[in-house]
Design brief:
Number of strands: 0
Shape: globular
Helix content: over 70%
Number of helices: 18
Largest sheet: none
Number of domains: 1
Order of helices and strands: HHHHHHHHHHHHHHHHHH
Structural class: mainly alpha
């Protein structure tokens, strides 16, 4: 990396250029559950409700394990910035072992989901479809985690287009495969929501095989020496380093996703129409998440490379530019979503009862976009500094305590507070989540300033 001074505008452009292919790739990845929801919504309300519950359970497990795998991102990024290319190749091989070990745990939970279903109090009418959905996805989990090795390696080297191409290709194939398995074609029976899982499984393994072929035959990756010595045995020291960083990240990710996705499990107790409406609004929210998420990921990549190159003042300026860019984009998208709220909901359902339940929830989605942008970008910057424990404690106390806990109290009025109708039932969860995200953004902002100052002080770096 060249040791040069860059203006804030140059940094913003650099982040945007790196984030653009990340955004396309993530939108393609998020497009998969969106496509699932759109297509299953036209199959049956029962299958849509089962999909909402099953997807929530799966995402909680997958995101937690993905969080552990994300320990590769700052590790690769700092190694790349320091010019330790052979070490990156060695660590990628350990990442494969990490993915396989985590897959055993996750697949076991997915294949035997009864305890999770009982914990979530999933309605009996939904359990059979939900169980089949999760058992199929158990076979896709190893491929999904292995693909993260390929993805984090490329993103850390600022080559997100290599990940984007595969993610877009998967989305294009997902639509016809979904149609084939959900509604049935030729001799294939109609599987409803379970058909989405089968399509996901096939495409996950196709992605892994394609990624391996790219790493093996593309001459760009030769400097990593990935295939010079064959597959390495598990290295307990390196795996320990990844787990030391990855376990807090996994817990962090689990807390974040459960604070959001457990809403579906609790809202399912209210009724099928309520949880179906929640699933629609959640899909809209997930698409909006991708914009600040990609800004955060791109910012984290450049910050980690700068830290590896010992350019800490540059790292701080990149972090500020990334957070500012994410916030501006989030405000713009929140405004656009508010004005197009009725049209967006109409894309998902023509059932007026589901639409009436979904429409009031959009106000909460728009309200927290600015704070979510600050929160997620700050969290990714802290990962680049390998600071993970303090954010995890903040996520635990705020998102679970205030967000999910407060939502449960408001939704079911367990304390007889008699809150306004707009923040009861499903609205209670969304209101509390909005409050939690706002507090988390403020807390992480304070934390990141302290972390940056401490890193610069320890390195003997002063203001210029």
């Amino acid at each position: 990396m060249k040791n040069v001074r860059l203006s804030s505008s140059n940094l913003t452009v650099s982040i945007a250029r790196l984030g653009a292919p990340m955004l396309v790739g993530l939108l393609a990845a998020v497009g998969n559950p969106v496509v699932d929801t759109l297509m299953v919504a036209r199959y049956s309300a029962i299958d849509l409700a089962s999909l909402a519950v099953g997807a929530s359970l799966y995402v909680c497990i997958f995101v937690a394990l993905m969080g552990v795998m994300q320990s590769l991102m700052p590790t690769f990024g700092q190694m790349y910035g320091a010019g330790q290319f052979a070490a990156m190749g060695d660590m990628a091989k350990q990442g494969i072992w990490l993915a396989l070990c985590l897959s055993l745990l996750g697949a076991s939970l997915l294949f035997f989901p009864a305890p999770l279903s009982r914990l979530a109090k999933t309605p009996l009418a939904l359990r059979e479809n939900t169980t089949l959905y999760l058992r199929i996805l158990a076979f896709s989990l190893p491929a999904s985690l292995l693909f993260l090795v390929y993805g984090t390696l490329n993103n850390a080297m600022a080559r997100p287009h290599m990940v984007m191409a595969l993610q877009v290709g998967v989305l294009m194939l997902k639509i016809p495969l979904n149609w084939m398995f959900i509604f049935g074609y030729l001799n294939i029976p109609a599987l409803g929501g379970a058909g989405c899982a089968l399509a996901t499984c096939l495409l996950a393994w196709l992605s892994v095989v394609t990624g391996w072929l790219i790493l093996r035959w593309n001459p760009f990756y030769r400097f990593l020496h990935l295939f010079d010595t064959g597959m390495a045995l598990p290295d307990t020291k390196k795996l320990g380093e990844l787990l030391k960083l990855g376990l807090p990240l996994g817990i962090n990710s689990f807390i974040e996703v459960t604070s959001f996705n457990f809403m579906a499990l609790f809202i399912a107790r209210i009724g099928i129409e309520a949880v179906a409406a929640h699933q629609i609004v959640a899909n809209i929210a997930i698409v909006l998440y991708m914009l600040p998420l990609t800004a955060g990921s791109a910012t984290s990549t450049l910050v980690a490379q700068s830290i590896g190159a010992r350019q800490l003042l540059l790292a701080r300026r990149i972090a500020f530019s990334g957070r500012r860019l994410a916030a501006c984009i989030a405000v713009l998208m929140a405004c656009l979503t508010w004005f197009a709220r009725e049209e967006l909901i109409a894309l998902y359902t023509h059932d007026p009862r589901i639409a009436d339940n979904a429409l009031p929830l959009i106000v909460f989605v728009c309200s927290y976009q600015f704070f979510y942008a600050i929160q997620i970008t700050s969290a990714y910057v802290l990962r680049a500094y390998k600071v993970v424990l303090a954010p995890t404690l903040l996520y635990l106390s705020i998102l679970w305590g205030i967000g999910l806990g407060g939502g449960y109290i408001l939704a079911f009025d367990v304390l007889n507070l008699m809150p306004p109708a707009s923040i009861t039932r499903a609205g209670g969860f969304w209101f509390s989540y909005t409050v939690g995200v706002s507090l988390l953004a403020i807390s992480l902002t304070i934390l990141i300033v302290g972390v940056q100052r401490r890193a610069e002080r320890l390195a003997g770096v002063g203001e210029t």
